[in-house]
Design goal:
CATH superfamily of the largest domain: D-amino Acid Aminotransferase, subunit A, domain 2
CATH architecture of the largest domain: Alpha-Beta Barrel
CATH topology of the largest domain: D-amino Acid Aminotransferase, Chain A, domain 2
Strand content: 25-35%
Largest sheet: 9 strands, mixed
CATH class of the largest domain: Alpha Beta
Number of helices: 11
């Protein structure tokens, strides 16, 4: 751990632009010097994947939360989508930890981006061992108001639809523009998130989160990409529509903690009625953990306050 002082808020961070808080293709640098080629496939065609992680620093050391899980997911997506089958999670993890150490924030938001680099998909068909661009950026973690978690948030119903037949659906690709537009629209209505459906009008997720509902004291969540065989069986899954839902890391942690607490979790196709008739609703991602939802537009969920199951799981993942 560095003996340099740890920044505790964003105002302090504004004077730290010269800190080496960026790792780009093997070199640490400050944010002003971080540049990508105009011909990078991420810029030219949006070819790339990313992960958003959180980290904490103290005198005891640095903890990058769920580092292995994030890197394993990225590695699997890179191989499946043909971005690269040569991504090494060990060196990547070391680079992330060192970037956090150099940034010197107490609570850090880490963005890992892997783009196609010099990849030309029209000329390099079948070649997956090219050199991608690796970018790691460390920033102060977003500070969310306590009221979001104490009172819960309202969500909207998005107009965009995810397509199960899109081979990139269910992976954390750079194609986030449409999701951000949905978030902007939700924010303009005073909402904290927007719920996205599939083209078959089944519930998928939030724009930047996974979705859970509580019914009869147990959890229900949409099937995520890669879980089809687990849910319906190997033989049956061959004829089942693939899921367009990202297998979220915090979603996985919530399911693990629910099992420890004796709370059953069911993964299945879900409809709008499952959402509106739920006793509790919450959203998960690596930035906010568990976020209670108390209204879906004009419809109040349950009692209109964060429920007991949601509170228990929020406490479990935070502890």
């Amino acid at each position: 751990m560095s003996d340099q002082p740890v920044s505790t808020n964003e105002s302090e961070s504004e004077s730290q632009d010269q800190i080496a808080s960026v790792f780009l293709d093997g070199e640490f640098m400050n944010r002003e010097d971080a540049r990508l080629s105009a011909f990078d496939a991420g810029i030219q065609h949006g070819v790339g994947l990313f992960e958003t992680l959180s980290a904490t620093s103290s005198i005891d050391g640095i903890v990058v939360h769920d580092l292995d899980a994030h890197l394993d997911r990225l590695q699997a997506s890179a191989a499946k989508l043909g971005l690269s089958d040569e991504i090494k999670t060990g060196p990547l993890g070391e680079a992330i930890t060192e970037t956090v150490r150099r940034a010197r924030y107490k609570n850090t938001r880490v963005r890992l981006t892997i783009t196609g680099g010099d990849l030309n998909l029209l000329q390099t068909h079948g070649r997956s061992n090219h050199r991608p661009t690796v970018l790691i950026a460390a920033q102060p973690a977003t500070e969310y108001p306590d009221e979001m978690f104490d009172k819960g948030v309202m969500v909207t119903l998005g107009s965009a639809r995810v397509n199960p037949l899109d081979p990139t659906a269910g992976h954390k690709t750079l194609n986030y523009w449409w999701r951000l537009r949905e978030l902007q629209d939700a924010a303009s209505k005073g909402a904290g998130e927007s719920i996205i459906f599939s083209v078959s009008n089944h519930l998928a997720s939030g724009c930047v989160s996974n979705l859970f509902v509580v019914d009869g004291g147990h959890l229900i969540t949409p099937i995520a990409q890669g879980e089809e065989e687990e849910v319906v069986g190997v033989e049956t899954a061959q004829g089942v529509m693939p899921s367009p839902v990202l297998p979220g890391i915090m979603r996985m942690r919530v399911i693990e903690h629910a099992k420890k607490l004796g709370i059953k979790t069911t993964k299945r196709m879900m409809t709008i009625d499952d959402l509106l008739d739920a006793e509790e609703v919450f959203l998960t991602n690596s930035s906010w953990g568990v976020l209670p939802v108390v209204k879906v537009e004009a419809e109040v969920i349950g009692s209109g306050s964060p429920g007991e199951v949601t509170k228990k799981l929020r406490a479990a993942v935070a502890g």
